[in-house]
Amino acid sequence: MIRSFYPPQRTLMGPGPSDVSPRVLAALSRPTIGHLDPQFIVLMDEIKSLLQYAFQTENELTLPISAPGSAGMESCFVNLLEPGETVIVCQNGVFGGRMKENVERCGARAVMVEDEWGTAVDVDKVAAAFKANPQASVLAFVHAETSTGVVSDASALCQLARDNNALSIVDTVTSVGGIEVNVDAWAADAVYSGTQKCLSCIPGISPVTFGPRAVARINDRQHKAQSWFLDMQLVMAYWGGGSKRAYHHTAPVNDLYALHESLLMLQEEGLENAWQRHELHHQALVAGLEAMGLSMLVDRAYRLPQLNLVSIPEGADDASVRQALLADFNLEIGAGLGALAGKAWRIGLMGYACNQQNVILCLTALESVLSCCGAKINTGVAVTAAKSLY
Amino acid sequence: MIRSFYPPQRTLMGPGPSDVSPRVLAALSRPTIGHLDPQFIVLMDEIKSLLQYAFQTENELTLPISAPGSAGMESCFVNLLEPGETVIVCQNGVFGGRMKENVERCGARAVMVEDEWGTAVDVDKVAAAFKANPQASVLAFVHAETSTGVVSDASALCQLARDNNALSIVDTVTSVGGIEVNVDAWAADAVYSGTQKCLSCIPGISPVTFGPRAVARINDRQHKAQSWFLDMQLVMAYWGGGSKRAYHHTAPVNDLYALHESLLMLQEEGLENAWQRHELHHQALVAGLEAMGLSMLVDRAYRLPQLNLVSIPEGADDASVRQALLADFNLEIGAGLGALAGKAWRIGLMGYACNQQNVILCLTALESVLSCCGAKINTGVAVTAAKSLY
Fold first, then answer.
1. Do B250 and A16 lie within an 8 Å CB cutoff?
2. Quick one: which of B74, B98, B200, B205 has its CA closest to B147?
3. pTM of the model
4. Inter-helix orientation angle A154-163/A123-132, to 10°
5. In order of start, what are the domains of chain A with their CATH numbers?
6. How many C-beta neighbours within 10 Å does residue B84 have?
7. What is the ipTM metric for this complex?
């Protein structure tokens, strides 16, 4: 017998989805209107403008794809690539591997530049890959790797792409709203993000932005994009058409109410303030974790504040600890992914969930659970260490 | 200066989205939990079971695609087709044309069987197309054409596909919950639907179901599906894996709360009762429209109860009438699409919006607006005619 579903009230400190603001949930559940309603057109224009702010871009072609980040990624590849092209793909975690899949399914060839998981993309290696593959037409990389908690130098990588007459495709799923993303300053060509990380919005939508060089490439295509749903030539006609919108697909109306509200909250706080808030609580969390005797997996130089990789201490069973956190504290932290499965936890401090109360909850809960399972940690010091940062 | 968005409270009697039940909106805004949370796994299993009920199928591979109906359509084509195959595509409205786009973008060849917009797919023509193209491996058609308000004989068409050793791809976006859809009785192979029509759920999700022959085709593919996001081999591992779910993409958690609630409402009412309700209010609406002197565009034999095509009467300006309905009554009806643009309105009676109050509102509002603009109609009789059916 199936009944209405009432989810538990979790605190989401994993790699995303992160806690959604009550303001966003309230917006989400407002009455549905038609996707061609004049009021909805106003909303779409505002979302576009708010996304331009979040991405720091004046790109006209800036809009939310009606599907999760994976579809946002795919929208960049299927629109920019044609069969037979060569793409340099940087892989320092799970999502570089997914980019390779996308390249190959477009009938293009992926030249992989691999770096150890937990380290940043090595710009010199990418330069060497361009030397060895002068025909490469696209460089694809992840700005903030959700699987490892690492930030790479997007500005240098985009510059390298331009120097080699290639377009850049940049994954900013975990970065937008948490650390600086400056699409225009980077001169990045195609950039996608997600809503369920530092934007504190529900999962399911992927903001994207395409610069003038990318738009030219899209308009000059020899073959139609292989995806009808993600074909930007068609999507543009709906999102870009002013009052003369051409129907493409039915927009996810309520999800866009939520995105609008979350972007508005980001604008109200201000990008710089949001970045500083992520940095502050990250410092406090790390101080607490280190005081407890745990060690951070990622070097300070390229550590993401919004996603903290901490090594699983001796004596602690990965799954049991996460289960206890969920059962006793309603607290979700993330497991390691891929090469880091069983070796590290991923503790998110994203968007609305990035606050002092959550830092203290996480440290207290982790100390309690690790003590119970007999892991060797220092007790009674973590919260004090964290609070010294406030 | 952008502020929080408060949509007007419309009555949605267009081709979808339709009015979303308050129960569904309440479910939508419950707190977000992780997409790998044990509680979420329970929800996923329940959704699968509720979708099997809605589709009337025991297909194991029954799940919601995390994107709108267009992506559900694309998921069927990219998973079943390989380059060079021949597909018979029936076109009697907009969505057959979209199927053709999908076929061609998969590198396959579309053999079109065209019928006049506003009429059903001609089964004999399809049989002839199979005779002329014995190599055809797939037959694709729309069960309920959203652009014309026409139902086609899905049972006969699926049988024809099987007789010719081809798989069937069936669009049931507008039919599920409004008229009978019986995937197992039809022995349909790949079927997709939408949430924003007779399920009274928000737009943005596309339920799909794949039968055993389709699954065998997916597992025997020579080439990977061209879409990573929609690759059922990967999606299956997340949705089908019992407690061992493999992460594929972040599920649209809150949207799935909403889908769960809307499917539960359908189960509580019962499929047969839901179909009867659609039929009853359709009869009442038609009685009212005809009493007013308006004429239905689609022959009674293949008229959809949930989507009513009515010819625009002489003296009435299409856009002005719809604008007045929206401005004065907060009532949305749909414009004609494609070949029917400017010739017909599409009046939806879908799911939660399919009730006596809406029938009366629509007739009253239409009479008021048409009288004001000087169209020749009979006044003062429509509501009485409609009420005679209750």
1. yes
2. B98
3. 0.98
4. 20
5. 21-268 (3.40.640.10), 271-387 (3.90.1150.10)
6. 11
7. 0.97
